[in-house]
Design brief:
The chain has about 550 residues and is mostly beta strands. About 0% of the residues lie in helices and about 40% in strands.
Length: about 550
């Protein structure tokens, strides 16, 4: 085992074996033969316009690790293009030649995300920028060429900051940015990789795994990272990957401007061959918040065209809020288990009064695809246009949406419907077995449920509708305010008088863990056993903890 050091002011002719003999930049790694157990440490406070490309793999139990040392800001590796040769325009606004508008609407200044403004005159604070007619304008307290040198002012480029093409690698405590396509990327079979404690930002996609070439890859753990200011996806898991986990990540400021043609998301998994994917305890927010009225559909967590062969997709105990479209979206997918999530103030975007109006949690199908056996359990949804949604549209031969179960959910605070179903989602053409039991849609109200495209204003009217699946003549719904503690301040725990306490149905040991009152995303989500509190299961994401019994039976669960 050898440990190598890299810092600004080093020399690539050195041995790299100490801080005194450190290498000068990450580009050196590509010309070095690393071995299992080797560590490459980048000095905190150092920053480069460069890329990290390891040419060797570690082995099981003997990884190659890239991390940081010393104190201060994370070392920065920016694979974008440096903007230099600044001249004063007027006041504190500086200008530099930039032939094309910044890719991804992104400008980074010493690793800080710049703020795009509507005009040059609107730039009145540090880090604000505007581009027009091949000129980039930046508000700065001094000449950016000398004011910003770690690494400087940059815009994304079609490059990658960290290549994930080898096996048994760990990336720990480094800031990666500037990818005009993806900042950290695996386009091959790189497997057994850990990405932790990193910051990934100022790019199109933060972390992207897999390609349509269907090359198999497996065993990724992506956790405790901060991923932000991406114009596309924060985390994107594609095609033919297995045993992939993304947990305790903070993902925000995704698709913050309107970029036509994009289908962005905080976390998205897409494509054939994906199996054993787990997305849990992440904090995903501010996705598409400032996008224009059209051209961008931005989702919090998106499961798209995923039909696992052996192990269900897990989306659990995440907090998703302030998302333009669906908070959590299960699209033409099967065997997705969405449970214990808190979703609020999402689904405020597209409003067509029908198929395409977003919801807190949506399960849908179309054309010739299948959406089957998805489970939506014990979620709390507050705000937005629609709470829960299940539908099919654009029907083709063989399309089927069936056996999707919605149980123990709370959905209130909506502006249109607590529950919206259409076509096969309402067990009509192309659908069957879609079941809504033991949910709380609040006290019945005018048009609070839309079943098969027809509005219902009472629970009785809904339950009397065609194709509603009943259990002993009822859906076991709670016709009352769930009495959340204070939803306007985002406290979605249950008050002592809540009708949702002990009112849910037991869903088995796999799903018995609910949120405890002091959970904080993403670093301190605390789970408890439903069976250790009260006479039955709660409806919603939180377990009710009687006064004086905080955390009794609590369990912090690291996996599913």
């Amino acid at each position: 085992m050898s440990q190598y050091y890299v810092k600004v002011g080093g020399n690539n002719g050195n041995s790299g074996l100490s801080d005194l003999l450190a290498w000068a930049d990450p580009g050196k790694i590509g010309s070095v033969t690393l071995a299992a157990d080797d560590i490459v440490s980048f000095k905190c406070g150092s920053a480069w316009f460069s890329s990290l490309n390891c040419g060797q793999s570690g082995m099981a139990g003997h990884r190659i690790t890239f991390n940081s040392y010393s104190t201060g800001n994370k070392p920065i590796i920016n694979c974008g293009t440096q903007v230099s040769t600044w001249t004063l325009d007027s006041g504190s606004i500086w200008k530099a030649t930039l032939a094309s508008a910044p890719m991804c609407d992104s400008v980074s200044i010493n690793g800080v995300s710049g703020v795009k403004m509507a005009s040059k005159a609107a730039c009145v604070s540090e880090h604000q920028w505007f581009w027009a007619s091949s000129v980039l304008y930046l508000y700065a307290p001094g000449d950016p060429d000398t004011q910003y040198t770690t690494p400087g002012v940059g815009v994304p480029a079609y490059s990658t900051a960290a290549y994930l093409e080898k096996n048994y690698l760990t990336f720990d405590g480094i800031q990666f940015e500037g990818g005009g396509y993806a900042t950290m990327r695996n386009t091959g079979s790189g497997s057994h990789i850990v990405i932790k404690n990193c910051e990934v930002c100022n790019c199109e996609r933060g972390i992207e795994l897999g390609t349509s070439a269907m090359t198999a890859y497996s065993d990724y753990e992506i956790y405790d990272n901060v991923i932000h200011d991406c114009s596309g996806e924060g985390i994107l898991l594609l095609y033919n990957g297995s045993q992939l986990k993304a947990y305790r990540n903070h993902v925000y400021n995704i698709a913050i401007t309107d970029i036509a043609g994009q289908w962005p998301s905080g976390i998205k998994i897409f494509g054939e061959g994906l199996d054993g994917i787990e997305i849990y305890e992440n904090h995903v927010h501010d996705c598409g918040r400032t996008a224009g009225a059209s051209g961008t559909t931005c989702v919090g967590i998106w499961v798209d065209y995923v039909h696992p062969a052996t192990t269900a997709t897990i989306v659990r105990h995440n907090c998703v809020h302030d998302v333009r479209e669906h908070g959590i979206f299960v699209e033409i997918s099967s065997d997705s288990h969405v449970w214990g999530n808190v979703v609020y103030d999402c689904a405020w975007g597209t409003a067509d009064g029908g198929y395409f109006t977003p919801a807190g949690i949506t399960v849908d199908c179309r054309e010739t695809y299948l959406t089957q056996n998805n489970l939506t359990y014990n979620n709390t949804i507050y705000g937005g246009q629609i709470g829960l949604k299940c539908l099919s549209y654009s029907h083709g031969v063989g399309m089927n949406i069936s056996n999707n179960l919605f149980k123990n959910n709370i959905a209130i605070g909506y502006t249109e419907h607590a529950l919206y179903t259409e076509n096969g989602g309402a067990n009509g053409t192309g659908g069957s077995g879609n079941t809504f039991w033991y949910n709380c849609f609040g006290a019945q109200a005018t048009n609070f449920i839309c079943w098969g495209g027809v509005n219902k204003s009472t629970y009785d009217a809904w339950e009397a509708s065609a194709n509603v699946v009943l259990d002993g003549g009822t859906t076991h719904s709670i016709n009352a305010d769930p009495l959340l503690t204070n939803p306007t301040t985002h406290d979605f725990t249950l008050q002592a008088a809540s009708p949702c306490i002990n009112a849910g149905v037991s869903l088995g040991t796999t799903y018995k863990y609910g949120l405890m009152h002091d959970s904080v995303w993403p670093a301190a989500v605390v789970l408890g056993d439903q069976g250790a509190h009260g006479a039955g299961w709660e409806i919603g994401a939180y377990i009710y903890e009687a006064s004086g019994s905080w955390i009794v039976g609590a369990l912090a669960v690291g996996g599913s």
